[in-house]
Amino acid sequence: MAHTPRAVVIGAGIGGLTAAAALHRRGWRVTVLERAPSLEPVGSAISLAPNSLRALDVIGAGDEIRDLAAAQGDGGLRAPDGRWLSRADTRAAAERFGGPLVLLHRATLVDLLAARLPADAVRTAVEARLADPGDARRPARVSTPDGELEADLVVGADGIRSAVRGRLFPDHPGPVYAGFTTWRLLLPLPGLRFSSHETWGRGRMWGTHPLKDGRVYAYAAAMTPAGHRAPDDERAELLRRFGDWHEPVPAVLAAARPGDVLRHDVHHIATPLPAFHRGRVALLGDAAHAMPPTLGQGGNQAVEDAVVLALRTGGASVADDLAGYTAARLPRTTGIARKAVRIARVNMAGSRAAVAARDTLLTVLSKAGPALFLRGFDGIADWRPPPPPYASLQAGVDQR
């Protein structure tokens, strides 16, 4: 009787659920362990670019998500007084990269992914710990309050403070503060009409985007000391920092309540890991390569990781297959993470001279046409999943 390989995924975020769905589709027996009491994610949105949508095609979810795309219009970059620094051409972007950018609630994506798993695959309120990474001769082991689980593959998808990463690479320095904090809001504002935009100020930025269901997703960032919090509440802090910016920023803040605002300091992995695997354990997403949100690629790269991991990993030689996973993912994600850091230095510029030079350059480049801006996403948004044959084909794993 053929061996059915078993995978244990630690962390039920977007990367972990995508990996679980992709592995299940390829014939693995999958268990997802999540320490939170439910799968309800933090109330914010995520943007899925054409690269991750093509990855989601592998598990049959791409078109379902594309149907959720809202009409973004031709927005772009603005100054705090409302001047357009550059205009975006969404049609040109979709043609260049082979599809739209889809903005949707994280909960919607989580539900779509979880629905592709057996009902008993996800276990919430479970504290999981990697007990043994295993090797080519023995399985990996994960300890839980209910006992140990043995697995042919363990996926560490436990986020930026990953305990799995710390177990595999105890000497790695881990994440560092990126120098700025972020706020996020998701509000029902069906009557609000505006062009999707991002606005860059001096050491501050704001973005406002419509969702297909009538809600508005807004986010902001500012250079602040790590750990700083508002003396009253975060909505009041946003009013102080952004209340005099152009519409629709004041309208969004007027509709928000203090409890609608989420605030998180931004950390990233500045020193790349030596590998994304050890033994029978693979890291993905923020656990492997947390990056600033300035390219909007953090979640997208987690989805790519998950699908590549499933496609490259068979049941018979997992320890060997994971070296190929590292070779495929570490250089790509390192390059994208470094680019996100460089972009953060530009859009969060703090000196008046740097802001003036930045805005002038954006205006000049905008007049040259959208191709110059879109070129910055070449090699990122045009990515495609690896073609067959896959490792699991060679190992005889069911491809359904």
Can you offer a commentary on this structure?
The model is unreliable at 392-400 (pLDDT under 50). The protein has 14 helices and 18 strands. Helix 1 (14-25) runs parallel beside helix 5 (106-114), helix 1 runs parallel beside helix 10 and helix 10 runs antiparallel to helix 11 (318-347). The protein starts with 5 loop residues before the first strand and ends in a 5-residue tail after the last helix. The radius of gyration is 21 Å and the shape is globular. 35% of the residues lie in helices and 22% in strands. It is α/β, with parallel strands linked by helices. The strands form four sheets. A seven-stranded mixed beta sheet has the order 5-4-13-14-15-12-16, with helices on both faces. Strand 9 (140-144) and strand 10 (147-151) form a beta hairpin. The protein has a domain at 6-72 and 99-175 and 271-346 and 386-395: FAD/NAD(P)-binding domain, CATH 3.50.50.60.
